[in-house]
Amino acid sequence: MSIEGEDYDKLTKEEREARDMADRAREAAEQAALPYIWRQELGEVDVVVPVPKGTRGKDLTVIIQKKKLSVGLKGKEPIMGGELSKEIKVEESTWTIEDQEEVHIHLEKLNKQQWWENVLTHHPKIDTTKIQPENSKLSDLDGETRGMVEKMMFDNQQKQMGKPTSDEIKKMETLRKFQEAHPELDFSNAKIS
């Protein structure tokens, strides 16, 4: 078990790195022992389930539901089955058989802003805080999300330089316009909050 919070903070940098390496190694061993391989991006999870060579689609029983996944050969115990870590969009999730020896399952996450700790809730978890997402380019994001990210980046830079954030700039601009429109009012003691 990994030590959380305060105890971890007391460790030296070297001890932390050793602990992290041990955790990564344990995690890798646990994941390697699963009857499938999986990878994820923020919006999707891909699972590969090895099956006996020569398996065809009609030999399989694959169940994909909002919170459940099961894959197996007809008439046998499922190779994998259980409750999904998080909900998925069933209508956008698919499965195919590749080279008659692998079942490829593509799951579309319902919440596309959340990393999964595991595919099935009863399987070993990964530490999602250590996930290194592939750098998604700003241009890949939809307009609204891109605008939000750019605003956050701008505000962050402004804060680091001790300058006003975009919201503060907007407030000052609004006050300035109001002052111009009402020269008769005295704003000398006004405080912006």
Automatic annotation (TrEMBL):
The keyword Cytoplasm applies. One of its GO terms (biological process) is protein folding. InterPro entries: CS_dom (IPR007052), HSP20-like_chaperone (IPR008978), NudC_fam (IPR037898). Residues 1-26 are annotated as: Disordered. It is found in: Cytoplasm. Its main location: cytoplasm. It comes from the Eukaryota. GO terms for cellular component: cytoplasm. Keywords: Cytoplasm. Residues 8-26 have a biased composition (Basic and acidic residues). PROSITE patterns: CS (PS51203). Transmembrane segments: none annotated. Residues 31-120 form the CS domain. GO terms for molecular function: unfolded protein binding. Required for nuclear movement. May interact between microtubules and nuclei and/or may be involved in the generation of force used to move nuclei during interphase. This is Nuclear movement protein nudC. It comes from Fibroporia radiculosa.
